[in-house]
């Protein structure tokens, strides 16, 4: 019989930890929270200092019964939930359910699930940190008061199934504000003049800079003509050549936010998927007989970029062995933390840098390997030397008209040998070399190209951009980003168009209501301050009841006003311009979890629905009768199929094109590659670059 009982949240985590602790320990999983506020009521007594009413979560009775049985047999019970506020709250609820003294040394925390980290943590058990519990409890109660009081009003006045949450309402407002910016944007004309220069047999590019040494903007065709008319011939003098060495430092290792952003850019992962796969890597993967089940990364909910001395030493040894001493970081200075970062645990990093991605190729799933590789590369790069770039700027002058040509070359790769951070604009970093240029020499302008441009509106939010913005504004915490984005999509408040958030009519209506009746809930500064207040509870500087009471004093009168004054809003369905083939009534557009679809207006008598089909102008190669249409899978991935489905079952993940293969007359499709789109035949080896 085991002497000690250890309780964690998940079976995967339990399996990993039990291996490390030995026969005296039995490790069981609580499967997350065992107690929560009731779903059928608010569960908060506002007249009694906002005391919460906790009940056993439906379905958790057997789990709790088993844990109680095991706890009675054990000499000591250790609560080893995750090392954050949520984990501390889970431990506290377990302590109450199992009659464990919360002031006893029953709490064990570790930042990584490795043998050394787990064994060391059991040498230093502590009591439950009530400041952490209170901070989490305050968030839960606050969100319940907002959600369970505003949502029923929306059900009555707008439609069933709507919800309003503290963080989700601000996220939705940001999407809507951006859409208004785009709609109100007035493009402004501007021009550029680019030139192809010739130096001997070498050609290089330059662009207009200014007149008489001063930078000039070109806002019209007239400005361009004035510049071109001032040029005398095609010969330019190399007036000055500036050469300098530039150092580029590596990015800090991942926080939750930066991991979600980079996984979106480089792996096309949604925030929810990133966190799900990261959880698997953290809890443990079976690496076979030699190592068994091992946690591969540190805890993945963090806003800290701190790295332990042990991990730094291991990284230093790895980099020296793999790349050489010159690639080691000088270790100057400390990376600046994001303002408001809790720094409760380390950055996200591999638990052992010597466990490189190649060694895990046959063990991890494709998604696990891709995310692990990203985390591993980012961490290793963060501990490496800066890259050194040589940059050259040439000032080219013709009759006081100045063009400038710039070039850069990586002199020493440093961290760039392992990893380069992505960007939202998908710009590729390439060496752009200039031929050897010396002051006083002449170059020839082979071709001068004036180009008209118009300023562009700000881009719609991708998941990565929205997560970054929420973090910068201090809205939410690492654990809230993914569920927040998921909620506004599930409620039909936003839709995804080309992986960018577009507000729906429903989203606009809900935000307008919130603006009128609950302005503080969607106020960015108010919500950010509330996060700071929750942090102050964690730090022991504030009492949770005081924070909740301060909020509720202003919130309660607004609820009463909304109940009395808010008028009922009828959302009319948009006609689709076709009749239902089952009952003859008009079909209308509806918004569902996966975007717009067609439904019969005679609902609920007729429940006919069908997807909105987008033809791409290609005949079905299978049945020769139908047309190929664009469809969406349940995971919102685009694919292509015949509009005669289910009679014809042709499907393709790649977009078919109209013309046949010139080699075998088979079907040509567009394949997306990192370096651009390529056209390929599905039957033979024919390939060509797609025309942009």
Task: Please name the defining characteristics of this protein.
692 residues, alpha+beta, Rossmann fold, Topoisomerase I, domain 2, Topoisomerase I, domain 3, 4 domains, six-stranded antiparallel barrel, four-stranded antiparallel sheet, 16 helices, 24% strand, globular
How would you describe this protein?
The chain has 692 residues and is of the alpha+beta class. A six-stranded antiparallel barrel has the order 8-9-15-14-11-16. The longest helix has 28 residues, at 130-157. Helices cover 33% and strands 24% of the residues. The protein contains 16 helices and 30 strands.
List the helices and strands and how they pair.
Layout: E1 4-8, H1 11-21, E2 25-29, E3 35-36, E4 44-45, E5 51-52, E6 55-56, H2 61-73, E7 76-79, H3 85-97, H4 115-121, H5 130-157, H6 166-184, E8 189-199, E9 202-211, E10 214-215, H7 221-230, E11 235-248, H8 256-267, H9 271-283, E12 285-286, E13 293-294, H10 309-322, H11 366-382, E14 387-398, E15 401-412, E16 442-454, H12 463-473, H13 481-490, E17 494-497, E18 500-503, H14 505-517, H15 524-538, H16 544-565, E19 574-579, E20 586-592, E21 595-600, E22 609-610, E23 614-619, E24 627-632, E25 638-642, E26 651-652, E27 655-656, E28 668-673, E29 676-681, E30 687-689
Parallel strand pairs: 1-2, 1-7
Antiparallel strand pairs: 3-6, 4-5, 8-9, 8-16, 9-10, 9-15, 11-14, 11-16, 12-13, 14-15, 17-18, 19-20, 20-21, 21-22, 23-24, 24-25, 25-26, 27-28, 28-29, 29-30
Helix pairs in contact: 3-5, 5-15, 5-16, 6-13, 6-14, 8-11, 8-12, 9-11
């Amino acid at each position: 019989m085991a002497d000690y009982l250890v309780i964690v949240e998940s079976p995967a985590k339990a399996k990993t930890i039990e291996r490390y602790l030995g026969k005296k320990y039995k490790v069981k999983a609580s499967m997350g929270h065992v107690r929560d506020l009731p779903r059928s009521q608010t569960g908060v007594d506002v007249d009694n200092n906002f005391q919460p009413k906790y009940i056993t979560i439906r379905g958790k009775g057997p789990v709790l019964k088993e844990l109680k049985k095991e706890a009675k047999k054990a000499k000591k019970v250790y609560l080893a939930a995750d090392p954050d506020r949520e984990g501390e709250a889970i431990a506290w609820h377990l302590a109450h359910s199992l009659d464990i003294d919360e002031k006893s040394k029953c709490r064990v925390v570790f930042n990584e699930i490795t043998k050394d980290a787990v064994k060391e943590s059991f040498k230093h058990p502590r009591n439950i940190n009530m400041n952490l519990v209170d901070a989490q409890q305050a968030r839960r109660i606050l969100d319940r008061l907002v959600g369970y009081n505003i949502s029923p009003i929306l059900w009555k006045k707008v439609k069933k199934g709507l919800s309003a949450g503290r963080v989700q309402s601000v996220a939705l407002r940001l999407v809507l504000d951006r859409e208004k910016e785009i709609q109100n944007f007035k493009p402004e004309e501007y021009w550029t003049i680019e030139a192809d220069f010739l130096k001997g047999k070498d050609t290089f590019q330059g662009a207009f800079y200014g007149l008489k040494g001063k930078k000039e903007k070109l806002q019209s065709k007239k400005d361009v003509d004035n510049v071109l008319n001032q040029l005398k011939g095609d010969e330019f003098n190399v007036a000055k050549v500036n050469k300098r060495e530039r150092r580029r430092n590596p990015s800090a290792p991942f926080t939750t936010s930066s991991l979600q952003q980079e996984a979106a850019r480089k792996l096309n992962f949604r925030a929810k998927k990133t966190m799900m796969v990261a959880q698997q890597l953290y809890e443990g993967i079976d690496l076979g007989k030699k190592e068994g089940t091992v946690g591969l990364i540190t805890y993945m909910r963090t806003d800290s970029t701190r790295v332990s001395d042990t991990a730094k030493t291991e990284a230093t040894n790895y980099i020296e062995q793999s790349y050489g001493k010159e690639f080691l970081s000088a270790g100057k200075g400390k990376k600046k933390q994001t303002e408001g970062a809790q720094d409760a645990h380390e950055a996200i990093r591999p638990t052992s840098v010597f466990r490189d991605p190649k060694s895990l190729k046959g063990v991890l799933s494709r998604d696990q390997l891709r995310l692990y590789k990203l985390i591993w590369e980012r961490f290793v790069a963060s501990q490496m030397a800066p890259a050194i770039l040589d940059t050259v700027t040439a000032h080219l002058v013709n009759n006081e008209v100045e063009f400038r040509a710039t070039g850069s070359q990586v002199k020493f790769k440093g961290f760039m040998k392992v990893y380069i951070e992505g960007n939202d604009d998908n710009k590729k970093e390439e060496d752009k070399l200039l031929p050897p240029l010396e002051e006083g020499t002449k170059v020839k302008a082979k071709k001068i190209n004036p180009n008209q441009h118009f300023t562009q509106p700000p881009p719609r939010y991708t998941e990565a951009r929205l997560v970054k913005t929420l973090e910068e504004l201090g809205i939410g915490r690492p654990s809230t980003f993914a569920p927040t984005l998921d909620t506004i999509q599930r409620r039909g408040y936003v839709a995804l168009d080309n992986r960018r958030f577009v507000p729906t009519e429903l989203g606009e209506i809900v935000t307008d209501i919130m603006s009128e009746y609950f302005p503080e809930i969607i106020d960015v500064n108010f919500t950010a301050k509330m996060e700071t207040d929750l942090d102050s509870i964690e730090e022991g500087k504030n009492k949770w009841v005081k924070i909740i009471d301060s909020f509720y004093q202003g919130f309660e009168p607004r609820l009463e006003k909304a109940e009395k004054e808010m008028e009922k809003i009828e959302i009319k369905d948009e006609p689709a311009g076709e009749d239902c083939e089952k009952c003859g009534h008009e079909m209308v557009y509806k918004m569902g979890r996966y975007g717009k679809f067609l439904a019969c207006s005679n609902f609920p008598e007729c429940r006919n629905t069908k997807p909105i089909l987008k033809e791409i102008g290609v005949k079905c190669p299978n049945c020769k009768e139908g047309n190929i249409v664009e469809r969406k899978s349940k995971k919102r991935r685009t694919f292509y199929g015949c509009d005669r489905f289910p009679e014809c079952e042709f499907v393709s993940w790649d977009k078919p094109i109209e013309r046949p293969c010139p080699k075998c007359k088979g079907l040509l499709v567009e394949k997306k590659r990192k370096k651009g789109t390529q056209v390929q035949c599905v039957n033979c080896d024919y390939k060509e670059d797609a025309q942009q």
